[in-house]
Amino acid sequence: MARQKLIIAGVLLASTALAGAAWADPVTVADKTLDGERLEAGIYPSAPMPEGFAVPDEPAHPPFELDWSIGLKGSYTAATGGNSFVTTLNPAFTATHQGVRTDLVLNGGASLARNTDGTLGVTGLNLQLDAVTALGRDTTASGSARIGLSQDLPGAPGANPLVEVPPQVLTAALSGAVERRFGRFDLSVTGDLERTLYGPTTRTDTGLTDNSADNVWQGDVGLRLGVEATPIFDVFTQADIGRDWFDQAGTSGIKNDATSRSLRGGVSGSWNGLLSASASVGVGQHDFDDAGLTDITTRLYDASIAYSPDTTLNLTAALSTTIEPTGADVGGTARVAHIATASASYTVNSWLRLRASADWGLSTVEGSGETERRHGFGAGADYKFNSRTALSADYAYSHRDNSLNGVTDSHSVSLGVTLKR
């Protein structure tokens, strides 16, 4: 019993000593006293961070990634109507924003030309904004807005020989699409609205000619339904309805306002990202409001194929049929055009790329009897001096047989240099 009392007494003495030490002077760490604020409720002492282990602040990223380029090209053309040399300056830029759900791309460019006679002109201006956003796991929305100004050079190969100064063409357009996936089904809705304005033309037969009768609004709505027939092939059907509104009647006193409808069906396929193809056939109608104009009904063909076995080789081909307004300095009510194109590119190495292309076309202007057949091909090469400078060389041949303007053959050779960011 005496021994137990001694043990208890020793424990009490040790506890008293520890309590006294706890209420003594504040604790010191490396000769630095912790102040009272750091021991308040919710504030805890933090261990010192060695200077070599400090994590630097991440730099702020700009909202857009900007790329730009500027090209200077000279082209010599030998054509049936004569020879010409044209120098063009082509600045362009691209601003890209990659967001969490929405991606934005803004593209802009211009083409400034100097003709053989020394005249300067703006042959092209364009600005376009594209947006893609994910509305859900199976739903995607996209849209674009663009505006452009263009003017052909006087005496261009295949142009109307009666036109001395071609008109300026101003175009503005809005388009949108929503695509939704339902299991094996794919449904998409598209809409487009476009406005086209034509400036006056200087002609040898009528002088300064007003083209305001060709100014037009164009609207179009489309619905496409596809079903996954196999893991490779999709079967689809597509219906479109459109409307053309002209500002005023032409010289004949009749406005070419019309409603267009089309229905087509086809099949598309994709093989491991190496080969993709699509083909469809259908029928299209272009019904004019005025009973004095003959309505148009035609077969519609559409096909495309792309083959890229690796990053060095890319082959594409396409076939399409369109019904569209004739534009300025062309008679008739509407143009029906069948166009086929093909292109190939091969990257030999990091500094040399080879290119080739070909095209074929057949168009008919309804209400005037004008027809045009054309074909052509070209080849070119791009040589990179470094990551920012490239030299391009091209050759192109074009043949046009127009029932009103006759046959035109042209050979063009061009050489240009491009600087980019």
UniProtKB/TrEMBL annotation:
InterPro entries: BBP2_2, Porin_dom_sf. The keyword Signal applies. Residues 1-24 form the signal peptide. Keywords: Signal. It holds the Pfam family BBP2_2. SUPFAM superfamilies: Porins (SSF56935). Gene3D superfamilies: Porin. This is Beta-barrel porin 2.
